[in-house]
Amino acid sequence: MKINEKQKNTRLTDDLLERFREVEPATIGHHLHYGFMDPSVKSMLDDVKVVGTAFTVKTTTNDSTMVHKAVSLAEEGDVLVIDRTGDKKHAAVGEMVVYAAKARKLAGIIIDGPCTDIQALREIGLPVFATGRSAITTKLYGISGEINTTVQCGGVAVNSGDLIVADDNGVLVMDETVDYEDVLKKSKASEDREPYSKEKLDNGEVLSSLTKADKLIEEYFQKN
């Protein structure tokens, strides 16, 4: 077993986090090509938005001891990111873990595996992202696990302190190498253009002309 302190991402100010709440992962997806979790990790609730920093935990197949410890150590605004080391059968998160996370004001929970107690999760309302649901749960064995080490979730490496931006469309992880300001600038510009683009479509302009797809097709045929 291993327990590390959460790494501080000093570049993530309160102002920066607030600005990321104004853009969608799908908009950022027009400008970034990596850091997006596999679509199998999806929101278990509707109309959610999560922005926070990763508090990571890795567990073995049927032992959730370190999940209980991690949710007890994580702080307000953290996103609990759980690496299930390939297990897709046992639910390591259910009503009590989610209730505890909400009591500690976590921003959300992301699991590379199933959750359980979906009715209770809906009542609690804390955003939970998982690969599905399961009736069989993990147990408290105290065998192994790691907290705040590098984990893998949804096919993405996640470090303690990484920025997490997630909504109903998916989960995005951005480490300290990402130019946050550049991502925000480009994403905000894309969203600001949308009303004007829709207006042009309403006035009869076709999408392929608006997005320059026609020009790319023309250039292709000119070359071939």
UniProtKB/TrEMBL annotation:
Pfam families: RraA-like. It comes from the Bacteria. This is Regulator of ribonuclease activity homolog.
